[in-house]
Each structure stands twice: as C-alpha cells, then as structure tokens.
Write a structure and sequence with these properties.
Layout lengths: L3 H18 L13 H24 L3 H6 L6 H12 L2 H14 L5 H24 L5 H4 L5 H35 L3 H49 L4 H11 L20 H15 L3 H4 L8 H33 L19 H50 L6 H25 L5 H14 L1 H10 L5 H20 L2 H7 L15 H17 L4 H8 L1 H10 L10
Helix pairs in contact: 1-2, 1-9, 2-9, 2-14, 4-9, 4-13, 5-8, 5-13, 5-14, 5-16, 6-11, 6-13, 6-22, 8-9, 8-14, 8-15, 8-16, 8-18, 9-13, 9-14, 9-15, 10-13, 11-16, 11-20, 13-14, 14-15, 16-18, 16-20, 17-18, 18-20
C-alpha cells in the first residue's frame, strides 16, 4: 500500500510530460496547446486518483472489491449505472453518427433506451436475489457450476474485450485532439489510469468515479445543448432547417438527413441491430454487476428507475448536439483537415461543437467530462472482466470453490493488468473504426450468449445445463463467426474486396440470438438425464427466492 501514491501519480506525470514533448511532433492534430483544457483535464485526473486512494483504504473484503460492499442506495446506483451506460459510444459516437447520417444516427440510442427498461425491469430484482458478484452466480444457482461458469466467463470476456476496443479508441482520439499527442501514447496513458483505478479502488472507486462522471456529463451536455439552441433562437425547427441547407443548398435542402434509411438501409439489418441493442443490454456484464452493489431488490428496482430517466434525457441532448454539429462544423475550416473532413474523425463532432459554442474553456470542460466518461466505463468493464477470471474461473472452476478471498482478489488484480495490456493493443489496432459501431458488435455477442442463458435460467423451469451450454455456445460462436465473415471485419479490417464478405450484413443478431434460444430450448428438452431431473426439481426453490428474496444476502456496513 505504500507504493500506492507513487503508482497513482505516475500516469498523471506521464500525461503532462508527454503532452508537451509531443506538441511539435503532431502539428496536424492541433496547432497550439489549449492550456485551459489541459488544466481542467489534469485536475479531473487528479481528483479521480484521489477517489481511488480513498476507496483503497475502504476496500478490505472481496465483497468490497466486487460489489462496493452492497451499500449503495438506489439513487447512487442509478447515477452509477447511467455513468456506466453513457459511454464514449453514447456521447462521442451517437453525436458523430447524427453528424454523419442525420436522423438515422439515432437508431443506436433508441435501441439502447428501449431495451433498457423493458429488459432490466424484468431481471434486476431477480439478479439481486439470486446472485452475489457476477451474473454467473445466477445461472449456476441450480445448474452445474463448472460448465456454466466456464461458458459465462467466456461470454463475459468476449463482450468486455470488444467493448473495451470502442472505449479505448474514443479515449485515444479525445486526448489526441486535446493535447496534440500521438494516438499510441494517448491509448497507453488511458490503459495505465484504468489499471490503477481498478487494482487499488475496486468497485468502490469505480462506482464513485461513475457517479461523479454522470453528474458532470449530464450537466456538461445540457450546457452545450442550451448554447447550441441559443444560436438558433431556441428553435429546434430552425436548427433542422439550417442543417438541411448546410448538407444541401438554400434552393435544394437535403431532406434525406431528416429521415431514416441513410445509415441502415435494409429492414432486416434494422431488426437485427435493434435485437442486438435491446437484448444485449441485459447481457452486458459490467451493467449486470451493478445490481449487486445495492442492499436489496427494492433498491435494485429503484436503480433502474433513476437510470432510465438519466439515460433518456441524455440521449435527447446528444440529438441536439449532433444536428448542431452539422450546422457549425460541416463547412467550418477551423474543424476540417486538408481533405475537407472533420478533424480526427466524426467521433469528435461533440468536442468540436463544444469549442464552437463555448470557446477553449468549454472545450476543456467537455473534454475532461468525455475523458471521465471513458475512464468510468473502462474501469467498470475491466472490473467485470477481472471478476469473471478470478471469481468464475479461478475460484469456482480451477480451485473448485476452495480459494480464499485474498487469493481471489489477488488474481482479479493480476487479471486487471492483463486486460489493460490487451485493451491498449486492441485500441491501437482498431484506431479508425467508429466507436458506436464497435459497441454494436459487442451488443450482438452479449445478446446472443449472456442474455439467453440468464433469461432462460430465471424464467424457464425446463432449462438444463446441457441445453444452456450447447445453446449459449451456439449463440457465441454464431455471433463471432458472422462478425468475422461480415463486411466490417472481412472487407474493412482484413482487406478483402468490397462485396466479397461471406455474410452480407454487418448485424448478426437476428440469426445468432435466434440460434441461441433454439439451441437452449431443443437441447434442454432432449436432455433426459438424472442431472436434468434434479435441475427441473430445483427450479421451484429458485423461483421462490427469485421472486421474494428469501435467503438473499443483505448489505454489509462500513
């Protein structure tokens, strides 16, 4: 613990020194350093590191590390969930998609928002009543421990790594824009900070960084939206009118940006993407973990209520910011490169818009908030991945439940370092992919693996271990294979000719989710083993605890 202050300070010093060292080497990214922005940026990093140090003193048990001791209130957890959910894809990606595609850019935010209350109100209380640290605790309540935890951990790791790619790309681009840093250095710094937060502060630090970040993000986005609308006399109609003129002309305004079909053209693709976003929400391990941080099912339900309000309001703001960016940025040479494209990609539309409406101080504030957004999410993701490795695989598969808390937490911290390194390497490799789209891939995998197993284990009495393992594996393999042979990876990443992809759609969920549910259903019904009969008989006791909470563990006090 004596090394903690030095460890906390190292990323901060690296950030400051690297920014000035790289200024001359990256003139194409930014001509001059934005000193107010950098001061606000470093101030936020220092504050969050202080929170981590405070949390480290209070993280004494495995429950503290994984679930913040189960001591958060519904409002606190609602803010933390919103902080986890309002990721780089939500803030930078959605505004960038609206800037690029107009109205159709909202398809991601609509899918996420609709899926959130619909699915989470169905399983939030059940998660809290049946689980302890990870969603694998729920699916192994009556099913066999080793195969189910292995599959759950595998699905978790795939989702976490895919999601981390999007967050690391957003973080790298943000620091590149703000500091004039080389992208690679920026991603390495993010990785170092992420490892520090999770290793020393656990869920307590992660939760409070998310809570503070949610408040800052909601306040900052509100301020940008107000300043944007002020330029249009607080008339959304005028904002839309000017956007169509900028993308067309006064004589022939481009009305296509006000309707659907510019981003997702096929009805099948739209259904498939919608399924991924809706069902994938309930399969995200870092979101599911949040329901173990409250004392009881009542607070879990309140968490969903508060989070839904915060998230819905936020998506309205990103819509305003994205359309304002069309007007302010599209033909503004201050924010365009030599080829006439937006500096550092469409993901920076919200950042450039904040600079346009509020100058360098607003740019500094929003950049710091966006950075906080990414740090909070990557910390939650890393903790979820580390928990899957230590709690599900190490403690319950390899050690067969005989590992003590200290060993389990140590493995989790070592896993954090490994995940941090993987996140940095993949963040560099996927530099030029839109972060909202990468998150769409993540949701497809979560919807095809984690959600079907979790949903069926809670609500279907005939589910068996054999059916869950085979069906979940089918969903996971199908989703991953279709992503690899789809246009994005096959053509854009691997470089094969356009139109040569073996699977023609970017969105695999309509096939992979259906395959997972069918596999679970068919192979469970075909399972007539003695183990299957015992699992059927155990459902009644599970359902009683699931619905009433009788026997569920309460919060621990600090």
């Amino acid at each position: 613990m004596r090394l903690l202050p030095v460890t906390l300070a190292t990323p901060l010093l690296l950030l400051a020194s690297s920014a000035f060292a790289q200024q001359a080497a990256a003139p194409a990214v930014q001509k001059t350093l934005n000193i107010p922005a950098i001061v606000m940026f470093l101030t936020f990093v220092a504050v969050t590191l202080g929170i981590t140090y405070w949390a480290a003193q209070r993280t004494k048990t495995a429950k503290d590390f994984y679930a913040a001791g189960g001591s958060l209130t519904g409002l606190q957890n609602g803010f933390a969930i919103a902080g986890d959910y309002m990721s780089a894809a939500s803030f930078l990606g959605i505004a960038g998609l609206v800037y690029t595609a107009g109205f159709d850019g909202l398809i991601y935010s609509v899918g996420w928002l609709v899926g959130w209350p619909l699915i989470m109100f169905m399983i939030a209380e059940q998660l809290k009543n049946l689980g302890k640290f990870t969603f694998a605790d729920v699916v192994t309540y009556r099913l066999q421990r080793v195969p189910m935890r292995t599959l759950a951990a595998t699905g978790t790791m795939v989702v976490v790594i895919l999601y981390l790619i999007g967050q690391m790309v957003g973080a790298g681009k943000l620091i590149q824009t703000l500091f004039g840093l080389d992208y690679t250095y920026a991603v390495v710094i993010i990785g170092a900070l992420m490892i520090t937060y999770v290793m020393f502060g656990g869920m307590i630090a992660t939760s409070w960084v998310q809570i503070i970040k949610a408040g800052l993000l909601l306040g900052g986005a509100t301020l940008i939206a107000i300043l944007c609308l002020w330029h249009f006399g607080f008339s959304p109609e005028e904002m839309f009118k000017q956007a169509t003129i900028v993308r067309g002309s006064a004589e022939a305004p481009n009305l296509k940006i006000m309707g659907p079909g510019t981003l997702v053209t096929s009805p099948i693709d739209a259904i498939s993407l919608g399924m991924a976003l809706m069902f994938g929400t309930a399969g995200l391990p870092h979101i599911l973990m949040r329901f173990f941080t409250v004392p009881d099912a009542k607070q879990a339900r309140r968490s969903v209520f508060y989070a839904t309000g915060f998230i819905g309001y936020f998506y309205i703001l990103t819509f305003i910011i994205g359309f304002s960016a069309i007007v302010f940025i599209t033909k503004n040479p201050d924010y365009l490169d030599a080829a006439g494209k937006i500096l550092n990609g469409s993901n920076m539309a919200a950042i450039h818009t904040s600079a346009f409406v509020g100058g360098p101080y607003m740019l500094g504030f929003i950049s710091a908030v966006a950075f906080a957004t990414i740090l909070a999410v990557v910390s939650g993701l890393t903790l979820a991945g580390a928990s899957a490795i230590s709690h599900d695989l190490y403690a319950n598969v390899f050690a067969h439940g005989r590992a003590n808390e200290q060993q389990e937490v140590f493995v989790s911290k070592m896993s954090t370092i490994g995940l941090g390194i993987i996140a940095v390497l993949l963040g560099i490799a996927f530099e030029n992919q839109n972060i909202a789209f990468l998150v769409g891939l993540t949701f497809a995998v979560a919807a095809s693996t984690n959600f079907p197993i979790l949903f069926m284990s809670i609500f279907w009495s005939k589910l068996t271990t054999r059916g869950a393992v085979i069906g979940g594996a089918i969903g996971l393999i199908t989703a991953v294979v279709l992503v690899v042979i789809g246009p994005t990876v096959w053509e854009e990443i691997l470089g094969y000719p356009k139109g040569s992809a073996l699977y023609p759609s970017k969105y695999p969920a309509i096939i992979s989710v259906t395959a997972a549910f069918l596999g679970i259903w068919i192979f469970s019904l075909l399972d007539s083993s003695e183990q299957a009969k015992r699992e059927h008989a155990a459902y009644e006791a599970q359902d009683v605890r699931c619905q009433t909470g009788i026997g569920a563990e309460g919060a621990t006090s600090h």
